[in-house]
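Human: I would love a firmer grasp of how sequence relates to backbone shape in proteins. Take your time, and here it is.
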Amino acid sequence: MMTKFFSIDKIPFKGKDNTDPLAFSHYDPNEIVMGKRMEDHLRFAIAYWHSFAWPGGDPFGGQTFDRPWFPDRISNAMDAAKIKADIAFEMFTALGAPYFCFHDADVRPEGRNFAENTDNLNAIVDVFEQKMDETGMKLLWGTANLFSDRRFMGGAATNPDPDVFAFSAATIKTCMDATQRLNGENYVLWGGREGYETLLNTDLTRELDQLGRMLNLVVEYKHKIGFKGAILVEPKPQEPTKHQYDYDVGTVYGFLKKHGLEGEVQMNLEQGHAILAGHSFEHEIALAQSLGIFGSIDMNRNDYQSGWDTDQFPNNVPEVALAYYHILKGGGFTSGGTNFDAKLRRQSIDADDLLVSHIGGMDVCARGLKAAVAMIEDGTLDAELQNRYAGWETKQGKDLKSGALSLEQIETLVRDKDINPTPRSGRQEYLENIVNRFV
C-alpha cells in the first residue's frame, strides 16, 4: 500500500449544524427512514471512471489533475492500475459508500489486443476480490467501455464493420464474467456511440437490428452463466453522436418491445441524460416505473446554461426529492442504487476535493430522500392524485376503460345522461406549494 492519498480515514456524521467540509451533515447511514436504514434506501455507489480515470481535461485544454497513478508519474501500466485501486478503496472506505461501479477501461491498462485486455482486466479483478473481502465493499454494476478507443468511432454494436461488433461482443462477455466474479448486482450497457452523426452514411434498419442482436446475446449469456443481477440500459439522446438510439425511456422501451426484451432489461437512468432529452429526471423515473423497467440511477446534474452533459455533483434538493419520491412510490430500489456519475471541476485539483464533492452529493441525496419520505407520509399529494382520477373508479369509468362499451354505446350514454363535462382545476400551483413545504 502506498502513502495515504487523502487527509482523513473515515468521514464522520456530525449533524445538520456541521460546518466541517470533511463530515456529513445529513447522511447518517444508520438513521431509520420509513422503516429502513438510510444506507439501504440510497445504496450509494462511487463511479471509478470520473473519480480515478478522468484527468481534468476539456475540449480546449488537457490534464489539470496530478495523480500518482497517471502515466506521467509511473511508467508501468499495471503498477499504476494497482496504485489506482489502492487509492480508490481508500476513498470508498473513507466515504462509507457500500458500492462502486466501473468500466473495464477504467481499471485496467489498454493492451496490445483483446487477449491482453482480458488478462489485464482479470489481474485487476483479482486485486478487487481481495480488497472487497478486506473492506466489505460491493459492486453495484460493471460495464464495458465501448466508446473511447478509436475502433469504436462508428459505434460498437452498430458499427458498419462486423469485426468491431465481434470485438465488442467479446469484450462485453469478459466484463460480464468480471461482474459475475465480483458478485455484481447489475450489468449496464451504455451505448456511448450507438447512434449516428449523419444519415448520409447510416443504414438505420441495419444498425438497429445489430443493436437488437447484441442485446439478445447479452441476455442469453446472462442466463447461461446464471447471473442473478439485472441487465440495465442507460438512455442518452446525443453527445457524442448527433442522435443516439437509446434516446430516452420511451424510445428504449419501444426497442425492447420490438426485440422481445421488455421482460429482461431494465433502465439505469441519469439525471443529466434526462435533461438532454428534454425531460425532467422524475419524468424518466416515473415512466420507467409505469412501464415496469425501472432499475437504477446515476445521480448528477447538468449546468442549465450549458447544452451538454457536464456531470456535476447534485446540489438541488427539490429536484432530488422528486426523483426519490417516484422511486419510493414504485417500491424503492431492488438491485439498483444511487451511483454518482459525477466528476470534479477541472480546477478542483486537491485530493480531498474528491471527498468533499461526494460528501456534498450524499448529503443532498439524504435531504432529498427524507423530503420524499415526508411527502409520502403526509399523503396530501397522493390523495390529490387519487381524487383527480376518482371518476375512473365508478362503474361508468370502469366500463369505459375496460372495453365493456362500444363507441355507439358511449354515444348513447352521453345522449341519455346529457353528459356535458365541466372542467376542474389541475391545482398545479397548490401541489407545487405542498412540495415546497418539505424541501
